[in-house]
């Protein structure tokens, strides 16, 4: 049975950020993820995780200036020093939360830009090595250009090639089923092929990015397939509820912690 992590950036927005941990646990989740923890003190997050017996599945390294439109800086030239301090900041939160995987956003750049490609490769190799010292995996995630126009890593093949070329044991793929379906389709064959290098899965319906309960994808079949493939990691519920979060959890009831 997949272990689902509530995505607290998208779900449970009826509550303040810290109260979302309690709400997710009350709804039967045993794990959580979110994009960024950095506006709350690490000790406050740790306290919510412990109080609710929740596991921290994932969060992202700092993404640069999000409000100004940055979506990571790993492929952006001249930002390597920022990245080096960002990773130390993320590691403070990792130590407090016990998270074992962090997602590095690539940033906005043309995928054909050779300088961006070289920066990205260098950044990924550096951060994977640094996280490896603390026993943490580094994840990279292809993101579709409809949701994030101009995003550098917009192809599962490119992610697969980089992971294979670098050959670092703690560098893994974040397989977001929603992005995969929009970018390439062929979700099940993609999972079968890429599962050995996958460190985290995320789900949402396509095209709405709402609850994983219909539309283009047959999620009951996909959840069974994820089990059949022997995946033992987390499945992040990175979806925008159609209405109130609790009203949209019918799909989750068979998996809820009791
Ligand atoms: O799919 C996404 O958008 C996220 O997983 C992410 O980390 C960047 O927004
Ligand atoms: Mg995602």
CATH topology heading: TIM Barrel
Mean pLDDT, as a whole number? 98
Tell me what the CATH architecture is: Alpha-Beta Barrel
Number of helices: 8
CATH class: Alpha Beta
| Total domain modules | 1
Radius of gyration: 17 Å
Topology of this structure?
Layout: E1 3-7, H1 17-26, E2 31-33, H2 42-51, E3 55-60, H3 80-97, E4 101-103, H4 114-133, E5 137-140, H5 156-166, E6 171-176, H6 177-183, H7 187-194, E7 198-203, H8 219-228, E8 234-237
Parallel strand pairs: 1-2, 1-8, 2-3, 3-4, 4-5, 5-6, 6-7, 7-8
Helix pairs in contact: 1-2, 2-3, 3-4
Bound molecules: the ligand O=C(O)[C@@H](O)C(=O)CO and magnesium ion.
Overall description:
There is one protein chain. By secondary structure, the chain is an alpha/beta fold. It has one domain: Alpha-Beta Barrel (TIM Barrel), CATH 3.20.20.150. 36% of the residues lie in helices and 14% in strands. The chain contains 8 helices and 8 strands, in the order E-H-E-H-E-H-E-H-E-H-E-H-H-E-H-E. Strands 1-2-3-4-5-6-7-8 form an 8-stranded parallel barrel, surrounded by 5 helices. Helix 1 links the parallel strand 1 and strand 2. Helix 2 packs parallel to helix 3. The radius of gyration is 17 Å and the shape is globular. The mean pLDDT is 98. The ligand O=C(O)[C@@H](O)C(=O)CO binds next to loops.
